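Attaching the record inline, Q. Sequence:
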Amino acid sequence: MKIYKAIMLLTLVASNITFAQISTNLTGVNSGINGLTQISGESAADVSGSDAVVIDGFDIIMAIENSSFYGGEGGSATAVVGVGNSVNANGGIGIRVNSNEVDDYTYGTDTFTSSNIIVIGGSGGSAISAPGVSHSLSGGSGVSIYEAIVTLNGGNFSGGDAGSLTNITGSTDVDTIANGGDGIYIGEDSQLSLSGIVSATGGDGGSIINSGEMSNVEFDGGAGLSIEAYDWGSAFGGESTTDIVLGGSYTGGVAGSSVSLNNIIVTNQGGDGVFVAGNTITLTNGSYIGGAGGVLTDANEASKSLGGKGFFSSGNYNLTILDGYFNGGLGGSVNGNKSSDGAALYLENSIVTIEGGTFDRGGIVVDINSTFINNNLAFNGGESTQINLISQVGTVASAKMTSGNVGYARTSGLGLDQFSFSGGVVSNIVLNSSGQSDIVLSGGIQIVDGFSVLNSGSYTLSISNEVASLGQVVIQDGTTDVNLWNDDHFTDTMVSGGVLNFNNQDFNLIDGAVMRLTSADAVVNFKGTNTAVKSGAQLDLGAGRTTANALTVESGGSVRSTVYGSNGIVSVGSLEADQLTLDVGASWRLYNDGTFTDYESLLNSNAFLLGVSTNAITHGLTSSDVELIGEGMDAYWLYSINDLVVTNEGSLYKLYARYGMQNLGEALNAEGDFLTLMNLMQSEVDTNVDLQNALINYGSADAASSAITDGFLRTTEMGSTLVGAQSVLADQIGVRTREHLRSFRLAGKTGPSGARGPASWWDRSMNRLHDALPSFNLRDSMRSAQDRTSEPTVSDERPSVKKPWISGVQGGAIPSFTSEIVIPSHYQTWGRAYVADLDQESTDGFAGYDASVRGGVLGVDRRFDHAVVGVAGGMSKTIVTGGDGHSGEADSLQSTVYASYFTDRVYLNAHISFASSDVETDGVSMFGYRSEYDANSLSFFVGAGIGYKGFNDGVMITPEVSLLSSKYSRDGYTSSSSMSQTLGFEDMVFDSYDQWSYQSELGVAFSSIKLIENTRLQMAFQPEFRVHWVHEFEPNPDGERYEFVGSTQALHAQLQSREENLIRLGGGVRCWNWNSQTTEFGLNLDHLKGDAYTEWMFSGHLIHRF
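Structure, as predicted:
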């Protein structure tokens, strides 16, 4: 034996040496030589890195421990030319063992043993601008073994990353290989034994940029562990000569990436965590992770970059998995589109038993392309996201599950896929094969979510009684034969395509169950003797076809079928039975899918074929049991199923649903007065086409119901509005009587005994006027007038009112500029104008209304020491606009008698008002009703308050309470329609009517005692603020009774309820001019607010003293 060591390169060469003659131990750090750089050559370039250690010979025994080995890195080649030449820039191998055996079917005799070593393959090199040249730029393996006996006791093994290729313009026969190196590669005729903690990682695939045309490109990730050492005895069904026990951590390398590789369809993938072919293997534990796919940019759209497999078993006839974690690599992307993930466990032509373990991303895939393989997978424990059976043509892929947890159980093959479940939990069974799939469910298997058939294959399903539920069953294609089941298994079934056959036994669709056919391509055949749709169950025929021998829809059961059409021809989902029975209490729904719209052509015909029987049809249905619903049917709400007919056409019996006018009360779900109204209108609607069209034009039953209700069971809200107008009038009288009260209180016991008023007021007023008056001797003139007036005397006796100024200002009025003060009588005239806007929002089926009241009041009253009495009269106009189309106007004349009594602190007010109104109303325009009538309003008001001075005697605070009782009454009248000739509407004769309102108010008023004076304007102002709670004791008025001419049936036009509780906020101001002592002006603004009611009232007043 000779040992050559140059620049850390060790090569052992042996020839014709017996096993015992060589025994070598190697330690330390050992590195291969890096490749060179070649530039502008015209011949082949080999710039590969060298191997760190090469064992090449016969019967060599090599032991290595606690050492590190690094393969040399590949070099670089730039502008290497020459068609047919090649560039080799591969990374070197960390440790290479290569026995020179001749017989390829016997194990090699070299022995390699390692303990806790680190081995890393060299990275591939790079090539730039080398047209017409093949390239090999792969990373080196960490360990590469051929024909040897290998024992690895722990250690870390990594394959080298592949190199890069840039700016290549190649020809169509050029190959580029840039795969990552394997962490551990075990080749043919080798035996492997692993112990301790072994970690192996594959190198990443290479990078190809701006490539030209190539015939073959490989840039996959390397495997963590790749075993191609076939156990030939096991592979051909004989006894196994070796067992491999695996544990540790194995991770595949990431697939390579490319840019502008668009002339060729490429499939690259991440490396497998472990690849094993043709061996007997036991996995006790460990981690097996596939490498991720790469990123292909500007690639052919058909290219793929797949995730690697966690564990890839090929041709292993005895694979046992006891535990471990398995995870497929994440799929890469092609032009931004994600490729498929790798399988956690990929079984190709293998026989496998799984007792435990976790199979994460990608789950378990069973891929069978060999006819020698049967009973491929026994899943007895563990968890997997899926088990996918993929049989090729002429082969069988099978799996048996006795325990564990599986997300999806799938079939995707072209041959025969077989699943047998007897235990464990499966979320979904999904059959997607194009061949045949046989599914057997028995024992304690639990199906959580459902069972689906997605492809055009042939499927059989057998379910034993022990299986609790099948979840939702979805059939989209193919032919599915169910040969064994119980009633609980098919409670939620949807057939959107294909054929579903229930063979050999009776079928019961039980309470709560639904069987749905959702397309014309869907077929369900009940082949047992009897089929029953039980109470609470629904058989939805859709647009498909359902057949049975004898089918019964029991009372409480229902059938639904889809109405569809094309080219003006209507079609309905088909139900065919030798014997068809529909019990009394059963129901049928016809659902229009919107494809048929010419319903007018179906009027008064046998429009819809419900069922066909070769023997007999027995049914207890009425027309009300058959409902026509669906898209666009609102537009035809007036028409529906009005009869059921059984015909005998040759050898077939057919059940038809006739289509025509339906009963108005049923169409509109009418009750009470509305039902009475519909019954009265029915005969007219049956014969009057104009009326039919007018009702149809509403577009839906709901819209028609609302319009008819508004037209005939509602009326103009004139009563409530005129009652509200009485409240507005009462406010005007109330403001007037409060003015007297304020005048009385403000005079006080210090009130003037004559026109001059208190000296203090006089002096203060004169001082204010001094700067504003002209320079002539007006001041002296005023003093002269003052001197001619006697001095006031103060006593407990309240003076009589001389002028409004004395009443309105504490301390008296501004004196006249004349020497004579004439005391007039105790009468005052006054006037008020007001505007009120009312907004009642919609409530409880009423549309609401808006109203306005405009009016004025003139009055005259006499003042006594502690009282005021007066009379007033006025006019107002009230306009009502209803949200439902009703409107009206009222012109009213009003008269009022009022009185007020007051002391220093307490006041009592009362008045009686009467109003007579001429009323005109218009109904909903569609029905054209109009009317005129007289109405009266009578109201009684009583109020009281008590005053307190506050805020340093500057504000009078007056708590107040009042009650207003109003009665609205009108004569009977007749409302006539302008549509009587075309739509046949008769006159409505209304009875006389009255209603009461009782409205209380509780609140407080704040009045300024001290005046606000403005010398520039020569004006005085007195503000007031009010807040009250208003309560209505009779919020629900009675309806207005009427009859149609020629009928004795009474109907009632209902009125909207009034708001029970309101808050009133108000404010006002009185003002007068110093130079006009006989006249006063005032403005007031009040706002009422409730949940659905709003009112604004603005008023102004004028008071003049005779």
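DSSP finds ten helices and 85 strands in the chain. The two ends are 149 Å apart (CA to CA).

More tomorrow.
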